[in-house]
Design brief:
The complex is a heterodimer of chains A (114) and B (111). Chain A has a single domain, classed as Immunoglobulin-like. In chain A, 0% of the residues lie in helices and 50% in strands. Chain A contains no helices and 11 strands. In chain A, 37% of the residues are buried. Chain B has one domain: Immunoglobulins (Immunoglobulin-like). In chain B, strands 2, 4, 5, 9, 10 and 11 form a 6-stranded mixed sheet that branches. In chain B, strands 1-3-8-7-6 form a 5-stranded antiparallel sheet, with no helix packed on it. In chain B, strand 7 and strand 8 form a beta hairpin. The radius of gyration of chain B is 13 Å and the shape is globular. The chains are: A mainly beta (114), B mainly beta (111). Chains A and B meet through strand 5 and strand 10 of A and strand 5 and strand 10 of B.
Chain lengths: 114, 111
């Protein structure tokens, strides 16, 4: 079975631009969470979605937004990119939010902002 | 505010040795303490986890020791192998089920 998939693998953007990252959860998983992992640090929680509704939000500015589609895939959008947004963006899926204890991570999208 | 403090930042161990990584948490509402293993180019993968009702959990060569009164927990890797070379993250979570991660420990096991 396919694991969590993310696209693109790598992305280079310029300050001020906007970016959209995509995630497909494991089949049967209805909850998707997004994390930002800055080099040398642990993942930081950005959003959690379940059944197309936002169930949790981390301490990130409003430039960050996300949505979940009927097929449970998800997109993370970041507007007005800053140099500090350069990071590995991870998507994780679980059966439901209460199963986030056992969530499965994708390989991530490496975003570089120049 | 770092709610989960992890040490050391890096660790070098000889093959066959014991690797020990320590974490301390602040939030007494945390009730789930997982460890994740991350290889380069991959996302973190759940390795082993413990709840505060037990003081130790062992799975193969990996053991978590938990000290609730000290709010500390540690990962022990017995008989460390070169294939164990990776970054290890401790995490803690509570009612929100969302884990708070430590900064990570880069483990290198020399053959």
């Amino acid at each position: 079975d396919a694991g969590v998939t993310q696209s693109p693998t790598h992305l280079i953007k310029t300050r001020g631009q906007q970016v959209t990252l995509r995630c497909s959860p494991i089949s049967g998983h209805k909850s998707v969470s997004w994390y930002q992992q800055v080099l040398g640090q642990g993942p930081q929680f950005i959003f959690q979605y379940y059944e197309k509704e936002e169930r949790g939000r981390g301490n990130f500015p409003d430039r960050f937004s996300a949505r979940q589609f009927p097929n449970y895939s998800s997109e993370l959008n970041v507007n007005a990119l800053l140099l500090g947004d350069s990071a590995l963006y991870l998507c994780a899926s679980s059966l439901a939010p209460t199963d986030s204890y056992e969530q499965y991570f994708g390989p991530g999208t490496r975003l570089t902002v120049t | 505010q770092q709610q989960v403090k992890q040490s050391p930042q890096s660790l070098i161990v000889q093959k066959g040795g014991i690797s020990i990584i320590n974490c301390a948490y602040e939030n007494t509402a945390f009730d789930y303490f997982p460890w994740y293993q991350q290889f380069p180019g991959k996302g973190p993968a759940l390795l082993i986890a413990i709840r505060p009702d037990v003081s130790e959990k062992k799975e193969g060569r990996f053991t978590i020791s938990f000290n609730k009164s000290a709010k500390q927990f540690s990962l022990h890797i017995m008989d460390s192998q070169p294939g164990d070379s990776a970054t290890y993250f401790c995490a803690s979570s509570g009612g929100s089920y969302i884990p708070t991660f430590g900064r990570g420990t880069s483990l290198i096991v020399h053959p």
